Inverse folding.
């Protein structure tokens, strides 16, 4: 019998990664043994305390990703058959998205609450990695405080419900394959927890993944139809993709952060256009006047020549109307004053209705 050995020389991060993946594989293997390599154990090297290992069943990697029909059927079966030990969303231990610890070591009755914690955590890690970006912070906080409750709370209200499903947690092209011996699909490199099953498919939205092909998504939905309200499936899919794309932005710095901002903006404009517009207007008020370099980046193209000192004096001599307008926008959601990402959920006003995409 062949075994697979994985090691990480990352100190405590490596410990969290190896323990989290072991527990993830163990939980999934208990539900779908043929879909997941059997984990045998994890631990720390005696002669190198900074290195941790995972030992699991060896399976020879074939086609990646595997054929969509059998693969999506088996994945949906695992989602459907799995049962949360507490009946809640979460997990009994911290798991990771690659090297990034996730907020999984908790149990929540509300999926909206847990997903908000997860996304807020990733936003915080992104800001620590790349630094503050005021325009990005506005859409981040609007998504956390308004869009998440608007799209996810209806899943568990009005007589509707969703079951916590065991998910792989980071399922993309390179974390799934066809077994070279049996031809059967299998999944690995997991960061599992109990979530809304549609969360799993959020990682397939990015065009960089071959799993984004229509045949994978459609075949999955044939086996596990969209949750009600069904007409908001695509909006939820876009919302879930933010969590994975932020992870990519942190791990592989590129243009991914800009893509996340654009996708957040789509959701904000569609469901909360007035709040988004007010906050954007507030962004070019006092905080930017007090920061000339930020004002230039947000307002002017590179070839425009402006005398900044003269402009600053003019701006500060303007009447109070603009200040009042900026203050009103800031108070609307009390977002500009927040320095840290809040992990608590905010309930949407009951009379808030979805609006058309601008």
């Amino acid at each position: 019998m062949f075994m697979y050995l994985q090691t990480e020389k990352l100190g405590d991060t490596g410990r969290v990664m190896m323990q989290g993946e072991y527990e993830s594989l163990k939980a999934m293997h208990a539900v779908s043994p043929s879909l997941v390599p059997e984990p045998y154990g994890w631990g720390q090297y005696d002669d190198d305390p900074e290195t941790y290992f995972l030992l699991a069943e060896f399976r020879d990697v074939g086609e990646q990703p595997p054929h969509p029909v059998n693969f999506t059927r088996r994945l949906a079966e695992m989602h459907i058959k799995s049962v949360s030990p507490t009946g809640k969303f979460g997990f009994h231990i911290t798991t990771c998205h690659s090297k990034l610890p996730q907020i999984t070591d908790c149990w929540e009755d509300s999926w909206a609450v847990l997903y908000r914690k997860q996304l807020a955590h990733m936003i915080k890690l992104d800001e620590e990695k790349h630094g503050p970006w005021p325009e990005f912070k506005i859409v981040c906080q609007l998504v956390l405080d308004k869009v998440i409750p608007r799209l996810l709370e209806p899943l568990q209200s009005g007589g509707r419900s969703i079951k916590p499903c065991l998910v792989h947690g980071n399922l993309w092209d390179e974390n799934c394959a066809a077994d070279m011996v049996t031809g059967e699909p299998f999944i690995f490199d997991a960061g599992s927890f109990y979530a809304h099953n549609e969360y799993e498919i959020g990682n397939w939205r990015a065009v960089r993944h071959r799993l984004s092909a229509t045949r994978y998504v459609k075949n999955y939905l044939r086996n596990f139809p969209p949750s009600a309200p069904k007409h908001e499936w695509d909006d939820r899919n876009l919302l879930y993709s933010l969590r994975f794309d932020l992870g990519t932005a942190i791990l592989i710095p590129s243009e991914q952060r800009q893509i996340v901002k654009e996708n957040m903006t789509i959701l904000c404009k569609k469901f909360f256009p007035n709040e988004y517009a007010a906050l954007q207007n507030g962004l070019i008020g006092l905080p930017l006047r007090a920061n000339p370099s930020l004002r230039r980046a947000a307002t002017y193209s590179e070839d425009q020549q402006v005398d900044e000192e003269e402009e600053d004096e003019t701006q500060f001599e303007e009447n109070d109307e603009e200040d009042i307008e900026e203050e009103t926008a800031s108070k609307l959601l009390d977002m500009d004053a927040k320095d840290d990402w809040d992990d608590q959920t905010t309930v949407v006003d009951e009379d808030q209705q979805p609006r058309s995409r601008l």
Summary: The longest strand covers residues 3-9. Residues 286-358 have pLDDT under 50 and may be disordered.
